[in-house]
Amino acid sequence: MAYIGIALLAGGSFAASAVAAAICGRTAIGAMKKKPDALGTYFILSALPLTQGLYGFVGFILLRSFLVAEVTLVQACAIFGVGLIMAAVGFIASIGQARICANGIEATASGHNVVAPTMIMAVLPELYAIFALLVTILTSFVI
User: Fold this and answer.
1) Would you state the pLDDT for residue 123?
2) Which end of the chain is more exposed for a tag (fewer CB within 10 A), N or C?
């Protein structure tokens, strides 16, 4: 059960970031047709939803020491639970951020100065991914 939790935690977070990168990357390529000189801005907005992969890696580092034969059922259930939380919240937050950032990329390509407001709005789903990471960190201290 602990191994499945770790797999969900890391794999789900990595997959979420990969899907988000594809959404933003596709939008950035289309935006470059309109305004190719804004590639740096497109890159920054595309990178923002990738943090969930980092959170999954941090969670893995914190919980990997529990992947031993002596892990208790309670510990394994706790790891499974936080893995499920990190995967679900990471995926939802990453996709939400990618949609916000993709819209910001499109608006920037159309000549609107929306980079800062886009980043501010994209932080809102990020907050819940941070909460999921905090739950993982706090859980790692008590199990």
Assistant:
1) 95
2) N
Structurally, the chain folds into a number of domains equal to 1
Alpha carbons within 13 A on the beta-carbon side of 106 = 10
Question: Phi then psi for 114, rounded to 5 degrees?
Answer: -125, 20
pLDDT, tens digit, 9 for 90 and up, residues 57-111: 999 999 999 999 999 999 999 999 999 999 999 999 999 999 999 999 999 999 9
Residue 37 CB coordination number (10 Å): 7
- Separation in Å, CA 74 to CA 77, 86, 88, 114: 5, 18, 21, 48
Query: What is the domain extent for residue 66?
Result: 2-142
How far from 39 is each of 17, 30, 95, 136, CA to CA, in Å?
Answer: 20, 11, 21, 35
- pLDDT for res 39: 94
The CATH number covering residue 108 comes to 1.20.120.610
